[in-house]
Amino acid sequence: MRRQFVRLHRWFGVATALFLIVAGLTGAVIAWDHELDAALNPSFFEARTPGPALSGLELARRVEAADPRVQVTYLPLAAEPGHTLQMMVLPRIEPATRAPYKLDFNQIAVDPATGDVQGRREWGAFSLSRINLIPFIYKLHYTLHLPFTGGVDVGVWLMGVVGIVWLFDSIIALGLSFPSLKAWRKSLAFRFGRGGYALTFDLHRSGGVWIWGLLMIVALTSVSMNLAAPVVRPIVSMFSTLTPDPINNPEIVRAPKPGDGMLSRERIVQLAEEAGKAQHIAVPPGGIYYAEFLHTYGVGFYETGNDHGDMGLGNPWMYWDAATGKLLGKQIPGKGTAGDIFMQVQFPLHSGRILGVGGRILISAVGVAVAMLSATGLLIWLRKLNARRGAAVKARKAQSVEETQRAPVARNADRMPERSREEVASE
Q1: Dihedral of the CA atoms 407, 409, 414, 416 (nearest 10)?
Q2: How many CB atoms neighbour CB 15 within 10 A?
Q3: What is the distance between the alpha carbons of residues 209 and 213, in angstroms, rounded to a whole number?
Q4: Which one of 59, 69, 128, 359 counts the least CB within 10 Å of its CB?
Q5: pLDDT averaged over consecutive 10-residue blocks of the chain (427 residues)?
Q6: Closest by CA position to 171, among listed 109, 219, 120, 121
Q7: At what angle do helices 133-143 and 154-177 cross, to 10 degrees?
């Protein structure tokens, strides 16, 4: 049985190694995406004009009035002091062609004192330019920048499947790391003095053992990040009820009707303030999002600048029908069924933000370790592959020499008369 598990571990590791090297290194970087992005692109993050900042709602009005091609889909309700206010936008429908306007950007940085657009970029574009580098790395982490094909997000599915294989492989690896009770100390040791292959092997085996629990958490949450709707939520719902919300359960959204209007962002924020007080949410509405395909508004509750949820289980979110203002659902961290809380904890665990800055440092270190474990696994496999090939070459050479040595005897035997052969055989 152990031989079969060794073979599974070998092929699971080889199949996922390159993907995990990319995911590990990019994950180590994007744990600090906001800070690195701001350091690389001060003109996109730092406001040019001193003075009192306008509200996010007023800035969105000014942006849409200045450029009728764009519709603001996400905006923080207030800018951080000294910083621009960054909005996500989508193109409106051009009346003449009845097709969306062509835009080469989906994110803008707005001067909070004047409403002027300081910068534009296509978040997630396949580009290594300074303005696009961190979003490029972020998207590379979970999609590899692979395209939609046949309505399927190939990259998201691929990395989700890699996470599933990695999860099972981690369980197999732990069993293989402890071949016997007597040898358990060796499975935790590093032979730094030996160097070479011995150290490579120890880094792979013992390194994986020391952080095995963290690897399992990252592997599981990576599956939840990429395959929540098709895989994780259905499995969790077998054990615990999941509270519906319009993002994960679009079937609960009312079908649009002819003549449907659209409530203003201001009205939705007002509803959010009232609902936040009723739910005893300690922080105010911090950002508003419009999901056009669902005709639904979402409002996140957080202090200015904390849109990622830098500590604990993240930020509360509530959702309203954009036409009627009906409350469609809510996600309040720490509240709901056991299944709800399990799903709430996935991103904070995966990003390390559940523990604040310390957790982000830890997740960066784990990302580097994942890349190291995958790289050392590949090196071990290549060494053993070369050894097997070398042994096969030696075996073929030995067989060839043996056949060469036997050939003269066989030829001489062929020349003997039949009687002589019998005599030789009898001797």
Answers
A1: 170
A2: 14
A3: 8
A4: 128
A5: 89 95 97 96 96 95 96 96 96 93 96 96 96 98 94 95 96 88 80 87 92 97 96 97 92 81 95 96 96 94 89 94 94 95 96 96 97 95 89 84 71 54 41
A6: 219
A7: 70
